[in-house]
Design brief:
The structure is a homotrimer. Chain A is mainly α. Helices cover 82% and strands 3% of the residues of chain A. The two termini of chain A are 26 Å apart.
Chain lengths: 155, 155, 155
């Protein structure tokens, strides 16, 4: 049993780095949801009829600009976070070194927090630059995943 | 070889609980897609032109209320399921105990089925309460993930 | 240490197949983003105000039909790819045989590339048929996941 536990700890040394990055990103999306709910309640316009009744607001599709920004942040996160998480986990399972994983996952988390901030504040060309940085980190992980997968097959 | 198989079974005891929860959630999203396709065909309004031609319906963006509800369920699932799945898998990989995983994953699956039901039926404040319950389960998993990750590093 | 590495290689023989499928799907979504950005810039209509200012275009919600097609491809991918990735990874972790994983994951990747192509070209009933093929592959993986999970518990 103790041997088995040791195996996992030594074969997946970057697993804690993945865990921290994942929870940090989950915290970010939880904050986005909170921000969206609060700003929608303040605007008093609800695209779903029972929400309008519950909050005694107006039922309409023309949400306030900031509420739409929150929805845009969420849509961008649904497009990007699952692929990052899958790439990061594949990297960990293929035996990613701790330092490399900490650097790449940490950079991605910081970049996505920055992306959310500049998206909510409406800052261009910063949003484009930050978005491309996040993509660069994902492709850096993808390249390492392919190299380790190739070595894995050859082993 | 048999030793190796034993390793995986003993190091990842909660993997079957993850597998069942995943397939149960996949079944839920498959049902949502089916419901959306059927209700869109009945309404006869299609936002994509070639779909309108194929189904001999009207090409327009004003989808029927129930079709929009199905789209809302899907959007909510794309925002929430990938993060739950990543958290649950991280928990399993960090050596989650079977009972804890079965309880947390099972609760989440039931809560998300209930969320879909109350969203389609338009029931508030139930949808808000069920949504927050799902978030509470995810944060309970996240807390355990962080604790196990911290122990993992210290080991 | 060398024993440990051998364990992972022998217990998760299908991990490289997952890695290749994941990177292939990530490449597809990266191409979709590129196509969306380029076609939006050509159309000159931007739903986000700071993007319109940056690109000296018009700020409006009525995006060009092809830009909307790219958004539809992305939305369909956010609904389907995370669940496929989770199912494929669960299959790998439960000890999927290499040949089965290569066949199922490879088929899914080809099917999703075809789905994107027919969605962008507006071809029906091909899109419906290709979509259902992708769902069939996912359910084939799900069935294998449940069988392995059941064996895992019994072991």
């Amino acid at each position: 049993m103790s041997l088995t536990t040791t195996s996992l700890t030594t074969t997946l040394p970057a697993l804690p780095a993945f865990a921290w990055a994942l929870v940090a990103l989950f915290a970010k999306t939880s904050l986005t949801s909170l921000l969206q709910v609060v700003s929608r309640a303040r605007a008093g316009v609800f695209p779903i009829p029972e929400d309008a009744r519950l909050m005694r607001g107006r039922h309409a599709d023309d949400e306030a600009p900031f509420v739409r920004r929150c929805a845009n942040v969420w849509r961008n996160d649904t497009e990007n976070l699952p692929l990052f998480l899958a790439l990061a986990l594949a990297y960990v399972l293929l035996g990613a070194p701790v330092a490399s994983a900490q650097w790449l996952f940490g950079a991605y988390v910081l970049i996505r927090y920055a992306h959310t901030a500049v998206f909510l504040l409406g800052l261009q060309p910063w949003r484009a630059l930050v978005y491309l940085s996040g993509m660069a980190v994902c492709w850096a992980i993808a390249a390492r995943v392919l190299m380790l997968a190739a070595a894995h097959v050859g082993a």
